Amino acid sequence: MNILTKTATSVAAVLALTAGTVHAADPDLVVFDWAGYEDPEFYTSYNEAHGDAPTFSFFGDEEEAFQKLRSGFQADAAHPCAQSVPKWIEAGLLQPLDTSRITYWDDLDPAFRDLEAFQKDGEYYFVPIDWGNTGLTYNTELQDEEDVSSLQAFADPANQGRVSIGDNVDDAYALGFLATGVKDWANATDEEFKAASDFLRKVHQNVRSYWDSGSSLAQLMQSGEVYLAWAWNETFSTMSGEGHPIAMKRDTKEGASSWVCGYVHLKDAPGSDEKFYDFINAWLEPKTADYIVNAWGYGHSNMVEMGKMSEEDLSAVGLNTSEKLRDNTLWQGPVPAELREKMIAEFELIKAGF
C-alpha cells in the first residue's frame, strides 16, 4: 500500500471540495465527476498527450448531477453509476459511444459492459470504469467485531451520534433493503420499500453526519466522532493504509452492497471528441487499473489487467473478482423508474427528520 500516495489523494479530494465546484484546466474537455476523481494518476496518458488535465466540475450525488444537466449545465463527460444510466439515456442526456475508438473495449468485463440497461437501439452509452463495495466500516478500537455482526448496529440506540452514512440515495437504500432482508431491489414490493425506509428513519436517529466524500468521512473517523460508517472501499483502504484502526466487514449477517460506475459522453458536448476518447483510453490502461486497486482499493473494469493481479493483492484491499463481488450482496443495478423516484423523495424526507 502506497501510504504517501493515498494521503496525497485524500488531500487532493479535500482541496477540490474546499476550492469550489470547478477545477479548471483544459477547456476542451469538461468532466462532471465525484470529488477525488480529478487525481491525475487516473489519466496520466491524457496529460502527457495534451499537456494539461481536463477541467473538472463536481457533484455530490447522481440526482444532483441529473438535475443540473437537465437544467442546461454543459460538460463533455460525466461519471454516473449503473443504477442511474437508464434514466440518463431516456432523458436524452447522452450520446452513443463509438466503441471502435475505445482501445480496451474488448478487455472490459462483459458482466459490466454488456448489460442491456446500458444500451439502446444496438448502441452502447456507458463505459464501466470502477467497481467496489459499500459496506459496514468501523473503528476496531471502539467496537468489537461481535458488535458489528449485523447491519442492525446502524439502528442500535447505543450508537446514537456515532454513525455516518453517505448522502447518497443509492447507498442509503442499499443499506435499508439489505437490513430488512432484500437483496434484489429491482423487484422490491411496496411493503419492502416501506420497511427499508422505516429502517433508515431509525438509522437517522443515530447519524452524526451524512458524508459527501471519502475524505470527509475519513476526517470524521480519524477524530473519533464517528466509529461506525456505511462506506466505500476507499475509506478502509486509505485509513488502514495510513495506520488507523479501521476495518470493513462485508460478511455481516445481511451482507454488503456492490456497485459499478463509469463514464458517459454527454449529448451536445461542447468540447473535443478526440480528447473525450483520449481520456477514456487513459482511464482504461493497465497502469490505471493497477493504481486504482493499490492506491484506492477499488476494482477496475479492465478484466484482462485485473486477471493478472494476485488473489493475495486483491484481498489485501478488500477485492476479489467481479463475480465474487456479487456474492451475498445487494447489486446496485438499475431499478424501475417509479421506485427510484420514490427512493429519492423519501430519502430527502428522512434526512429532514420526517
Description:
The protein is built from 15 helices and 13 strands. It has helices at residues 3-19, 44-50, 62-70, 85-90, 110-113, 169-179, 190-204, 214-223, 233-241, 273-283, 286-296, 303-306, 311-316, 322-325, 337-351; strands at residues 22-23, 26-34, 54-59, 77-78, 119-120, 123-124, 127-139, 163-165, 228-232, 246-249, 256-265, 299-300, 329-331. The strands form 2 sheets. Strands 1, 2, 3, 4, 7, 8, 9, 10, 11, 12 and 13 form an 11-stranded mixed sheet that branches. A two-stranded antiparallel sheet has the order 5-6. A hairpin with a 2-residue loop joins strand 5 and strand 6. The longest helix has 17 residues, at 3-19. The radius of gyration is 19 Å and the shape is globular. 51% of the residues are buried.
Fold blueprint:
Blueprint: H1 3-19, E1 22-23, E2 26-34, H2 44-50, E3 54-59, H3 62-70, E4 77-78, H4 85-90, H5 110-113, E5 119-120, E6 123-124, E7 127-139, E8 163-165, H6 169-179, H7 190-204, H8 214-223, E9 228-232, H9 233-241, E10 246-249, E11 256-265, H10 273-283, H11 286-296, E12 299-300, H12 303-306, H13 311-316, H14 322-325, E13 329-331, H15 337-351
Parallel strand pairs: 2-3, 2-4, 8-9, 11-13
Antiparallel strand pairs: 1-3, 4-11, 5-6, 7-9, 7-10, 7-11, 7-12
Helix pairs in contact: 2-10, 6-7, 7-15, 8-9
